[in-house]
Prior knowledge:
Elements: E1 6-16, E2 22-32, E3 36-41, H1 47-55, E4 62-67, H2 76-79, E5 83-86, H3 98-106, H4 115-121, H5 137-148, E6 155-159, H6 167-182, E7 186-190, H7 194-200, E8 203-208, E9 211-216, H8 218-223, E10 227-232, E11 248-251, E12 254-259, H9 262-276, E13 281-286, H10 290-304
Parallel strand pairs: 3-7, 3-8, 5-6, 6-7
Antiparallel strand pairs: 1-2, 1-4, 8-9, 10-12, 10-13, 11-12
Helix pairs in contact: 3-4
Amino acid sequence: xxxxxxxxxxxxxxxxxxxxxxxxxxxxxxxxxxxxxxxxxxxxxxxxxxxxxxxxxxxxxxxxxxxxxxxxxxxxxxxxxxxxxxxxxxxxxxxxxxxxxxxxxxxxxxxxxxxxxxxxxxxxxxxxxxxxxxxxxxxxxxxxxxxxxxxxxxxxxxxxxxxxxxxxxxxxxxxxxxxxxxxxxxxxxxxxxxxxxxxxxxxxxxxxxxxxxxxxxxxxxxxxxxxxxxxxxxxxxxxxxxxxxxxxxxxxxxxxxxxxxxxxxxxxxxxxxxxxxxxxxxxxxxxxxxxxxxxxxxxxxxxxx
Length: 305
């Protein structure tokens, strides 16, 4: 992929605060046009500091940022009309209605969508006459998203977009983000919901203490972690009877097998159970989830620090 196909490019980014704390320590990554890219990490990992550099809210202390081929800080006037930003908290006037807030924001946005269209996109059309202070936390997040979409952005930054949403609202937002991606919008999101990243992201990066420790597709990140097989042995069947090649860990009758070859190991286990006339209770076999991979990475990095 050539450099002009990347709409976000970060090279050797560093950001240090006045206290001397280095929040971002020389990271590099790229986001392709029409891609959903998730930036993950524990609290304090440097996600928000990184996103602020990409949005042009501040200049990096070292390194290079390009959004749509331009410096988002020094060429902000050219970049800002082409991007949409959804912050963790909007902070809108509480006495304005949803429609009034949207119209006010549209007045500051080049080529803004009609108010009704923006609110319909996020499921707030029927709440347009309600004052902002009367909205639930989830509805305020929907309003934040509507305002980020007003200018039909080419690049959309979403900082914790579904915080406070119920399950239905979260799924609706996912569908909207996918539709935006399919329409050509590039999306960079941060989220603490690992299921969200696993479901939405084409690629992702995991940060820890200001560094990117792994990157790739969700499948690539999880593939490096072992799958697991769990079950309960019947009374009177000792764990020692299991094939040694399965390397099972036992806690009483509960057994867990970790393997990088799930199909092979599961087949071997089921064949043993059939030949031994053993019924495996509560049998559960699954590949590693992004959550398991994330926790494993965080624990490994912390232990090695």
